[in-house]
Amino acid sequence: MRISTLLQRPLFFLFLIISCSINAQENKVVIGAIDSVQSNILGELRKVMVYMPDGSANNQQRYPVVYLLDGEGNFTTLVGILQYLSTGGNNFCPKMIVVGIPNTDRTRDLTPTHVDVYPPFMDSASCKTSGGGENFIAFIEKELMPHIEAKYPTAPYKMLIGHSFGGLAVMQTFVHHTDLFNAYICIDPSMWWDNQKLLQQARKALVEKKFNGKSMYLAIANTLEEGMNIKTVYKDTSAASRHIRSILNLQAAFEKDRLNGLKFSSKYYPNETHGSVPLMAQYDALRFFFDFFPLNFSMQEYTDSTISLADKYDRHFAKLSREMGYQIKPDEAEINFIGYELLKQKHYRKAADLFKLNVANYPGSFNVYDSYGDYFISQKDTINAIIQLKKALALKENPGSRQKLEALEGVNARKVQLPPGFPLECPVYDPQSKKRRNHSPARKASDDLVKQAEPLLNQLS
Question: What is the pTM of this model?
């Protein structure tokens, strides 16, 4: 079955689809929803902003989760970046759930230690509730994460993003609760806090601990006073340069210990201020973390009938699964769309391999069988088309599959009946299938069931 929201366009010239969910009745563009968690640790109700990738309600996929501090100020920006990088023909990073955490008491939650006063940045009133960072991290770990993982289709991969005080909280989590997240984006953090106490702790941890499987991106804004540059600022001792000097010292600590297993990158943004840097930093960090993620096809791979796109998908997603630490499958809608494009261009074997890949990866989806049925209809293979359409209808009654089935059965004197217990994941009747290559274990298991289709043929003989 064709996915109506996918425009008819060549594979290699896809253009960006705006992937916001649109409520046509109310004429609203919706990019997320408000959820809430009653926190016993913090003693308050905490609201969160949750973005789900488009199409997530209608598929079986699970998604990595980004936990975003200062959610009220950064949620829409990050969602836009993720949509751009993961949809509309772009595959630079995985589709991800975003959990934005708005503030109730920012200084309390995002600072690691209590200070009474910290001139010239903080007066006594501003510092009164400071030092609640450990409680806030405990809230995320013991209350928020379990809630999100129970309610939404989450994958094991988790990321934490924070800016300024939020960046300070990111570093506190990275140093003292390293395994809580897989990846950290630390944007212009307030490492000056409490006489740079966390900076000293970070230096020690980077020397003593291993960070295998963890990723960190550090972004540094241009907060230099007029007349200073990135080299001369080290010699300055004024309070005005304390912020950037503390971050540059943190960068130096990361750069010094490169044998601790951490995947690390940092960047100084000379044209960005403390307020503007999150936009660029989030984009660059995602590109750095997921440099292994893109899958590209050459024109020859697309047009050469001897090259299997399905096999390349198999190999690539096996690699992604190793890198991410859990099984990742090709997007059902993407494979379906490319299969139809190949079918239109009469690359029948390549199209069949992709439809079959979807059947192996998404055996609970009626649409994959309907699409595979369309392939057999294009080949005038009525028997196998009927088998696939019946599988689709066994999972979900739908008018498209029903109309095609009735039209096909009208051609035959007797109707095909699926026997009780016939496995939906069984592919097709194809005497040559045992000779075809099978790189994917899922596809091989599917082929092993092909012989069970043979009794159905007797009904038409």
Answer: 0.82
